Amino acid sequence: MTRIVALFALVLGGCLAPAALVPMPHNQDGGRRPARVGPISNRCPRLVEPNREKECEQIRFDAINFVRRLAVDDQLCLQGNPLSDGVTGRCKVRAFVEDVGPKSIKLEIRHADPGTGFQPMADHWYHEDALVDLYLDSWGFEARPPEPAAAK
Asked: What is the pLDDT of residues 103-121, one digit of tens each?
């Protein structure tokens, strides 16, 4: 019985030691705080060419399904050939899925051509709507800027 109490005291003492309360430098994000790319409103109703709204909605539906099927270790292209199943030579920014959450995907940029605005090895949490909007933009669906909210 005394051995169990001594073992319990030893384990408890180790857990309460000041070193155990210090954040570990090798946490999941390597000490970095990943950037967040928040939700973006649907661009299909705000198209510069309103006659393409039906086509936009169909492609948006397909993109939402693609984004929701992404899993850890999937590879995708963010510029050049966005959200394609196969990353080709046209891909200017290549990313891997590091983690998934409710309506969000954590991407690590593995390759970025100069001038793309992306940093290799950077982490970003993307809201699924932001990835869908990126895809629609690559298809040439140009949207008018959102109207400013009315002041109350």
From this structure: 889 999 999 999 988 888 8
**96 within 8 A of 110, measured Cβ to Cβ:** yes
Tell me the per-residue pLDDT of 7-55, one tens digit each, with 9 for 90 and over: 555 554 545 444 443 443 334 444 455 566 777 888 888 888 888 899 9
CA 10 from centre of chain: 43
One DSSP character per residue, the chain reads -HHHHHHHHHHHHHHHSGGGGSPPTT-TTTT---EEE-----SGGGBSSGGGHHHHHHHHHHHHHHHHT--TT-EEEEESSTT-SS--TT-SEEEEEEEEETTEEEEEEEEE-TTSS--TT-EEEEEHHHHHHHHHHHTT--BPPPPPPPP-
The residue among 98, 109, 104, 97 whose CA lies nearest residue 128 is: 104
For residue 126, the surrounding DSSP H or E stretch is strand 123-127
Q: What is the pLDDT of residue 114?
A: 92
Rg (CA), the chain: 22
**Helix (H/G/I), strand (E/B), else coil: 106:** strand
Q: Is 109 helix (H, G, I), strand (E, B) or coil?
A: strand
